[in-house]
Specification:
The chain contains 16 helices and 2 strands. The protein is mainly α. It has 2 domains: 192 residues, MFS general substrate transporter like domains (Growth Hormone, Chain: A); 187 residues, Growth Hormone, Chain: A (Up-down Bundle), CATH 1.20.1250.20. A two-stranded antiparallel ribbon has the order 1-2. It holds the Pfam family MFS_1.
Length: 400
Amino acid sequence: MPYLPVLRRPSVVRLLTGSWVGRLPSAMAALAVPLALREAGASYGFVGLAAGTFAIAAAVGAPLVGRLVDRRGQTMILLVTAVLAAVGFITVATVPDSRPLVLFGAAVAGAATPPLEPCLRALWPDLVPADDLESAYALDSSAQELVFVAGPLAVAATVAVASPAVVLWVQAALGIAGVLVVATAGPSRRWRAATRSTDWLGPLRERGLVLLLVCLAGVGFAIGTLNIVVVHYAEGRAFPGGAPGLLALHAGGSLIGVLIYGARRWTAALPLRARLLSLGLLLGYSLLILVPPPPLMAPLMVLTGLFLAPLLATTFMLVGELAPAGTTTEAFAWLITLFASGTSLGSAVTGAVLQRGGEHWGAAPGALGISVTVLLLLAGRRALRVPGAPVSRAVTSEVG
């Protein structure tokens, strides 16, 4: 079992657990903010504006916060962002009837999202030997899948016993608790990025990395289409669990895929693996255009997820290798930004297509997004090749 040596390494379980808990607020916000505002009597138009403000602020803030981590270290930035994000959520919870303050709170909570994902991915090369790094990224990717399963469940459980506003307080507490676990761990306190160039583009000066990030935007676009397609599909059919049930099958397939992927030792180069996994993802999304009946839709949802998390785990490795010295955290933050931006665009496009056409047309943009990813990976094979590149350019110091 290749995951056991990773989990036995010092601080790994602590960092995985803290990061997982600290990421829950982001997964909860998509439901918690709208529910709290609707309870306060807000219109759907304003609910959408507030949710969009949070998402845009998070997308813009991630690379900026990531750059601060690369320059100042993890501890202080994690703690400050956790407090700011908590203030943002609490503001929305306490004054949901004040539009200016709600938008301010949503913007602060989004922009100050603690960079736990990029921080953990920057730490992996210092936590495990190079031979176990692939399994470590697979564990990271599987934890990410579980976050987006547990987040909505945590919202539902809290709303069942308290008001939606309380969920926002719970998010604030979870964010601070998770960050405290990570930020006080030795590896996080000691981590320092290698000396970086003063180039204002940071990691974006690396052509191969930019190509990879655009590829991931295509994957995010496809995920955004799926989020809308399953809602439309469930409204017209009796499917156990409705749209959440369909997304749970997708997440389950993704989790199975990454656990299998991380349990093997691969000899194929990372760019080749990325191309093959993206082709598998394209197969699932192409079959989705057929909009099969529920008995066939269930295994198809598993198939659409099966290649997703392995592809993400592979790209985590590639980002770590392609990022210029001293820009690892910012590079991983750009990954989050591009993926989230693609997801938002995919949802918007699919909603517009479904409004004008049928389900088959509505499912087509997902396959289109993955097709762009496949074509870019094929066209950019030379840019993604990193002969003899070190696994990580991050170094540690004994400060703190």
